[in-house]
Amino acid sequence: MWNRLKILRAERDWSQAELGGRLGVSRQAINAIETGKHDPSLPLAFKIARLFAMPIEEIFSDVEQAGSDD
Fold first, then answer.
1. How do residues 4-63 score in pLDDT, each as one tens digit?
2. Which of 1, 34, 39, 48 could be joined to 6 by an S-S link, Cβ 3.0–4.6 Å?
3. Please, what's the largest Cα pairwise distance for the chain?
4. Domains of the chain in sequence order
């Protein structure tokens, strides 16, 4: 699953640990989601979407985005 989590986090100048703290998960969990090694649970995906005030579909996609840096 492709996601914009790393980009959104960087735009706010948050570390993985900071983002994890805001979401109630570990830095390692954030790293695993950002690198595509782990997909977030649905409740966590909703929490992420609320934190960034964006629809889930703008953060996560089941299709690789053309020209992405990831």
1. 999 999 999 999 999 999 999 999 999 999 999 999 999 999 999 999 999 999 999 987
2. 34
3. 31
4. 2-58 (1.10.260.40)
Report the C-alpha gap between 53 and 64 in whole angstroms. 22
Angle between helices 16-23 and 42-52 (to 10 degrees): 110
Element (H, E) at 60: strand 60-61
Cβ count near 57 (within 10 Å): 9
